[in-house]
Amino acid sequence: xxxxxTRLIAPHTGRIDHVEPTSGHSAATTAVVTGExxxxxxxxxxxxxxxxxxxxxxxxxINPHLDGLSPELLWQxxxxxxxxxxxxxxxxxPTDYTPGSADLPRVVEAMDRIVGLPLPDVARPWVETRWxxxxxxxxxxAVRGDHLxxxxxxxxxxxxxxxxxxxxxxxxxxxxxxxxxxxxCLAVQLVSAKQDPADVEKLLAASQVWERIDREALxxxxxxxxxxxxxxxxxxxxxEWLEAMLDAAKAWYRHLKG
Length: 258
Fold this sequence. Notes:
- This protein has helices at residues 3-13, 51-62, 104-116, 179-192, 197-205, 215-235, 240-257, and strands spanning 16-21, 29-35, 38-46, 73-79, 82-87, 92-94, 147-149, 158-161, 166-168, 175-177.
- The chain is an alpha+beta fold.
- The protein folds into two domains: 3-87, 2-Layer Sandwich (Phosphorylase Kinase, domain 1); 92-257, Transferase(Phosphotransferase) domain 1 (Transferase(Phosphotransferase), domain 1, Orthogonal Bundle), CATH 1.10.510.10.
- The strands form three sheets. Strands 1-2-3-5-4 form a five-stranded antiparallel sheet.
- The longest helix has 21 residues, at 215-235.
- The chain starts with a helix and ends with a helix.
């Protein structure tokens, strides 16, 4: 860990005995730090205006409103050119999205809990706009709404600990949007795990959310997902997982279109 980071977090951790870097898609510096006060999961980004700092600041703001669905934010620190969050450590495994997995009802539970969270005042300005470029003017309203969202629900972000407790992690960019966003993003993730789109719809139909979702809005958003994933594959053609997500988005859209 960078020497400046060590100095910055030491008042919160006490003497640092061990640092275990963690990996993932995030560009933040992440590690499990063991110190005098125990273990803490540290997420750090340079304290410079822009996307990374915005994401981590937003994560710090939403954490107190997640009703125990995400690990607790214990402290935050700013200085020496860094902004750092310290979370409780959970020992958990990724969920299994493949056909027949016993985890699938828990995945649906996670979706229900996310969409069912009360929208806190801090999130009201966070209108979902990421898919606007893939929608026409009138269609944009399909993603507008007053539900808290998590649009990156891959298996490593819905996890289950040894006590069988469900967690949803990595709240880097929560937004205010229609329930269509969280549910359809999860659907594409499930299809990318080799689930048949018809089986995915049956699975999601068992949720508390599904019956309240407007079918036309779902179809519009599914089409926008195809457009966005196609855009990402053109930007980063060397990343095969993006191509797989595009294929899943197409399959999900075809199913909904009928």
